[in-house]
Amino acid sequence: MSLSLRDQLLKAGLVNQKQVKQVSKNQQKQKRLEQKGQVEVDDTQQRLAQEAMAEKVKRDQELNRQQQEKAEQKARAAQVKQLIEVSRLPKLTTEDYYNFVDDKKVKRLSVNALMRAKLSSGSLAIVHHGGGYEVIPREAALKIQERAPERIVLLNVVTEEPDADDPYAAYVIPDDLMW
């Protein structure tokens, strides 16, 4: 059985019985005065501990929020990758190219006449994927735009039918000029 600190000090001869009684008497007197409200309780240690605990809880909540945000970003990236891989059109190897601008640079993609028309009309879109570019349908591009708009390279606005009373309806402006 272990001895209390008081008993250990007595046994070692560092204090005598009179000193032990005096200390216990002072402690009892202090408790009585605290209960009556005559002595102000020193609660600075307790207050500091509570403040430290509140700060720790706040820091933990911030870390949890950051981790959750990272997990959500990962999930969005995985969704975008899956959308692109599922809906991408097969790559073509033709001599006909579609030119587009990406990050102030002109890039080109091998296309056929149907793909060129659909890219110009907004039915197809071009997105970044795996260090290259992929052509995907408009619906998939809109879903990707919700999750990661920076991945969309080209998504033309759907062309509407011209008004019947438009005086310039006969003068069609081409959307994609060959460079």
Structural account:
By secondary structure, the protein is of the alpha+beta class. The protein has two domains: 5-30, no CATH class; 45-160 and 172-179, no CATH class. It has helices at residues 5-12, 17-36, 44-87, 113-121, 138-147; strands spanning 97-102, 105-110, 124-129, 132-137, 152-154. The strands form two sheets. It has a three-stranded antiparallel sheet with strand order 4-3-5. The chain is rod-shaped, with a radius of gyration of 38 Å. The N and C termini lie far apart (94 Å). The mean pLDDT is 86.
The gist of it:
The protein is of the alpha+beta class.
Report strand %: 15-25%
What Rg, in angstroms, do the CA atoms define?
38 Å
Kindly report the average pLDDT value. 86
Low-confidence stretches: none
Search tags:
15% strand; two-stranded antiparallel ribbon; three-stranded antiparallel β-sheet; alpha+beta; 5 helices; 5 strands
Task: Set out the fold topology.
Elements: H1 5-12, H2 17-36, H3 44-87, E1 97-102, E2 105-110, H4 113-121, E3 124-129, E4 132-137, H5 138-147, E5 152-154
Antiparallel strand pairs: 1-2, 3-4, 3-5
